[in-house]
Amino acid sequence: MLCPPHLLPPNDKPAVMAVAPCQVTVASTAAPAAGRGDRRHAIESLDASAVRKLTPLRGRIEQRALESDASLQYVVYVPSRGGADAPILVTVHGISRNAWEQVSMFAPYAERAGVVLVAPLYEYKRFPRYQRLTANERGESPVEVMEAIVAEVARTTGASGDRLHLFGFSGGGQFVHRYAMAYPDRVAGYVVGSAGWYTFPDAQRRYPYGARYSRRLQMGGFELDRFLGVPGWVLVGERDVYEGTAMRKTDRVMTEQGLSRVERGIRWVDAVNARAVELGLAAPVRFELLPRSPHSFRRSMRRGELGQRVFGHLFGLVESAARTAELRGKPSSGPDGRGAG
């Protein structure tokens, strides 16, 4: 059964809602529980029978189960004006699995821009390496999971699922830039937030380090000229320079890509743009530092204007300084009543 909604204090702003495992209403300004960036933890399984199967509610954040497989879940936000013909922004979590946090903090921007937000939830035990796009031990592809979720959201909301806008933070940034390389015709634009390491546009190195096809992983062989026509941005916090934040630290990656996420992001952007110039194309990717931001999605939103940058780059949303400060806000609690991690 669905639980009855909790009442809001009188002065709270409009609520967000989750319907898994029960219907929960929390203030959009509710303070989250403490979290530390991309800390690894498994997401508890939710009671799929309690997840709403109807069309997503307008102006509400919901965690839902995929109709074709209730064990696969996602978070969605549809603006109050509705989703008909709206663009879709797929936002991909890192290893903290903070899909709810990303959607709740992006929702005010999506409302202003008229964008439908979708965040797949990749359970740790089931998809431990979703960042690489490769299938799990069952043969399940994280790409196919995302595509099924997008197709369902497009069908139930009327949003346009032909070409996607993508954002990913940390491990999600790895997923996003690799997806853009593998499926450039599906991508209208992408933003990579603080990825730990990258696949370089080098046809001589095997995937996931380069673009050459890997038989073992069954991935690679990308059409780089098509990928280089897709606009992208790499955003990294200026304080995201420490190794102890779940960053890949193999000798190969440290030597080839750099010692910090800042250095690795710059090297990847330079490599992509250099390859584009070699092919007679315009440089497609830009790098930006987020002021006062460590390796934390939440702090990058509050301090580094991450939300304004993502929606400005992808959708042309322009906000005044006062409005941007208002939109930063705080993430709502997740459907289990806890703050995001």
Question: What does it look like?
Answer:
- The protein is α/β, with parallel strands linked by helices.
- The chain has one domain: 3-Layer(aba) Sandwich (Rossmann fold).
- 28% of the residues lie in helices and 19% in strands.
- The chain is built from nine helices and ten strands.
- The strands form two sheets. The protein has an eight-stranded mixed sheet, sandwiched between helices. It has a two-stranded antiparallel ribbon with strand order 1-2.
- Helix 1 packs across helix 8.
- The longest helix is centred in the C-terminal third of the chain and has 18 residues.
- The chain is globular and about 50 Å long.
- The two termini are 27 Å apart.
- The N terminus is likely disordered.
Outline of the structure:
The chain has helices spanning 99-113, 142-157, 171-182, 224-227, 251-257, 261-278, 297-303, 306-315, 321-328, and strands at 15-19, 23-27, 61-66, 69-77, 87-92, 116-121, 160-169, 187-193, 232-237, 285-290. It is of the alpha/beta class. The model is unreliable at 1-52 (pLDDT under 50).
Keywords:
alpha/beta; 341 residues; Rossmann fold; eight-stranded mixed β-sheet; 10 strands
